[in-house]
Structure formats: C-alpha cells, structure tokens
Hints:
Helix content: 25-40%
Number of helices: 5
Number of domains: 1
Order of helices and strands: HEHEHEHEHEEEEEEE
Radius of gyration: 17 Å
Mean pLDDT: 81
Strand content: 25-35%
Distance between the termini: 37 Å
Structural class: alpha/beta
Largest sheet: 4 strands, parallel
Number of strands: 11
Low-confidence stretches: none
Shape: globular
CATH topology: Rossmann fold
Amino acid sequence: xxxxxxxxxxxxxxxxxxxxxxxxxxxxxxxxxxxxxxxxxxxxxxxxxxxxxxxxxxxxxxxxxxxxxxxxxxxxxxxxxxxxxxxxxxxxxxxxxxxxxxxxxxxxxxxxxxxxxxxxxxxxxxxxxxxxxxxxxxxxxxxxxxxxxxxxxxxxxxxxxxxxxxxxxxxxxxxxxxxxxxxxxxxxx
Length: 189
C-alpha cells in the first residue's frame, strides 16, 4: 500500500519538482525525504528554513518548474516567510465541532503525531532529539480565503474541494537533549 508521503511526493514529481530543499522536522518529514529518495527527487539540506524557501523559489524562477521546500512546524514555518514573500495568502479560519484525537492510519494522525525534533545547529549540522506529548486534540475548522497567490506561480491549480483544516488550542511537549545527527543530504551554500 502506498503511503501518504509517497502520494505527496508523487504529486510533487508530477508537477515537475526535481529537488526538495529545507530542514527536516519530525517523523513525517523524514517519511517525505525517504519517499523523495524512492522517487529519485533530491533532498538538499539547507542551514535554515528561510534558505530552503529561497533556494526553492530561485530554482522555480530559473527552471520554470515548481520549487519545493520542507520545513518544521511552528517557528520553522514562520522562517520561510522571506523565501515565499512573492506569494500572498489572506484567510480567516474558525474552529467548529467537537475536539477529537486522530486515529492511527488517518491523514490527520500522520500530519500531527510527531515525536522527534530536528534543528539546524549554528555550524550547519543537523541535530535530533526525542519529544513526548499527549495526542493532539483537533477540532474541525473552516477557512475562508480572500487572497491566495501561492499556487498559481507554481502552475498548481487550486483544489476544487474544500481545504483540509483543523484547529488545536495547544499541546504541551517535553523535549530531551539534542544529539548530532548524520543524514545524507547535499549541503546548500
């Protein structure tokens, strides 16, 4: 059976992506890197998420094909802002319905259950640490998009159906000391 990571990478490859830039985060990001390798897409480790986004945008502008950047959640996502400054997204969202814990094997579980933390050290090497937290309590949410120019420059059509949106108030996590990690990736200047 094909994994969610394989499906995502298959869509990236079909859109013309040949390289994914960035800094890996928890378990599902490693699944994406492994799936990219199986699909013969290169993963280029960058020192920061911002550098990954800028590299992906530069590659897209030079090659005319979509670029791809992999980030961590939270601060990692915020770090790509400079790299995607040529795109705009204005939206509002609101939760509705009852909170729930995603069941193993669902897309929601795969997207939220992460028990690893990755970070780029000041010397550019990657570090890894275990984390622990209770399962995420998600709530269905609705999003209203007033501006979304993030897909068109990449030649990607907006989905015809409603977006997959969830909300969570927060989650407390415990993190252990980061350890150096060796990963096969091409360093990006």
